[in-house]
Structures are given as C-alpha cells and as structure tokens.
Amino acid sequence: MRKSRSHGVTLVELLVVVSILGIVALVAIPDFSSSNPQTLDLAAEEFANAMRCARSEALRTGEPRGFRQPHDKKRIRVFRPDTGTSPSTLNYDVFHPVSKQLYDIRLNTHPFAYADSIDHTFNYRASCNQPGNIHFDRNGIPRCTDPENVFLEQFEVTLKLGAHKRVVTLHGITGRVTIQ
C-alpha cells in the first residue's frame, strides 16, 4: 500500500493565481476615476434620487419634505420642514431608504459619483428668499421654503465633469424629475 500525501500549493502557483485574478479584476471592474463620465452619470442619479425621495416621502406621509442644494456646493440634503416656525426650520432627519443613513449626498466624499462643478438655476412664480431650499407639499407640488406659498416653475442642477455635462430638472407643478 502506498501512503497518500497531501500536496500543498507552492508559492509560485499562488503568485500566478493572484496575478491572474488581478488582471481579471482590472478588466471586469469599470474605471471609476474622476475623469470617467460614468461618475458624472452616477452623481446626476444621486441628485435626482434625492429629489424623488423628498417628493415620495411628502406624498407617503402627507407632510412636507424637501431638499437643499446650496449654490456651487457638491451636496444635496433631504429635510423635513418644521412649518410651525416662520420661516420654516429645516430638520435634516430624513433617512435614505436603502442605507438607513441621513439623506445627505456629498460628491466630494462619494466613492463612485463625482462632478467637477455644480450650478443650479430656478424659476419661481414669485420671489423666493431661499431658492436652493425646495419642499414638496402633501400633494407632491414643489414650493419655495420661504415663503412657502410660492410655487416652483422649474429647478435645474447642472453637473459638469470636463467636457461632459448632465442636467437634473425638477419640473414645477408635476414634480417630475428628469436627467439630460
């Protein structure tokens, strides 16, 4: 009878397998560098999803919810306005439905989404004191936060990355959010 010996793996075999796995990973995983337009697409989706979440939460709860996108900041936050104060106090206590973290998207620290610059434009039906703060009423209609009786006609966030550009548009009255 022969004694069977178990054979281990040599260092050379292990290095070959690790090298092959590294090459496969480089080919299979997309490049998420800051010059890749896919990072801009993800940034636009994050901003659009924050707007959609604020609207759907307002419709679901029957209470106003909104978002804040400060001018020239690579950030969007979802809030719950306290309408008992004038002007409304913004409470940033709305949680992301998937991550269960506060709904606060910061592109400077996001692992996959990025934009070189962000700018927004807006049209209201009257004067708005805080144009970057938009909330949805219980019917999902976008309004100015201060004063809250001013309806939004259109809000656009333009995200740029090199020669690439994406525009996230919130349409007034309907509350529809599109990306171009």
Q: How is this structure best described in words?
A:
With 180 residues, this protein is of the alpha+beta class. It contains 2 helices and 10 strands. It has helices at 11-28, 37-61, and strands at residues 65-68, 75-82, 89-91, 104-106, 117-124, 133-136, 142-144, 152-161, 164-171, 177-179. Strands 1, 2, 3, 4, 6 and 7 form a 6-stranded antiparallel sheet that branches. A 4-stranded antiparallel sheet has the order 5-8-9-10, with helices on one face. A hairpin with a 5-residue loop joins strand 6 (133-136) and strand 7 (142-144). The chain is elongated and about 90 Å long.
Protein topology:
Blueprint: H1 11-28, H2 37-61, E1 65-68, E2 75-82, E3 89-91, E4 104-106, E5 117-124, E6 133-136, E7 142-144, E8 152-161, E9 164-171, E10 177-179
Antiparallel strand pairs: 1-2, 1-6, 2-3, 2-4, 5-8, 6-7, 8-9, 9-10
Total number of beta strands: 10
Radius of gyration: 23 Å
The multimeric state of the shown protein is: single chain
**SS-based class:** alpha+beta
How many helical elements? Answer: 2
In percent terms, what proportion of residues is strand?
25-35%
What is the first-to-last residue Cα distance?
Answer: 74 Å
Uncertain segments of ≥5 residues (pLDDT<50)? none
Name the helix and strand elements from N-terminus to C-terminus, one letter apiece.
HHEEEEEEEEEE
Looking at the structure, what is the overall shape?
elongated
Residues in helices, as a percent range: 10-25%
Could you give a short account of the major beta sheet?
6 strands, antiparallel
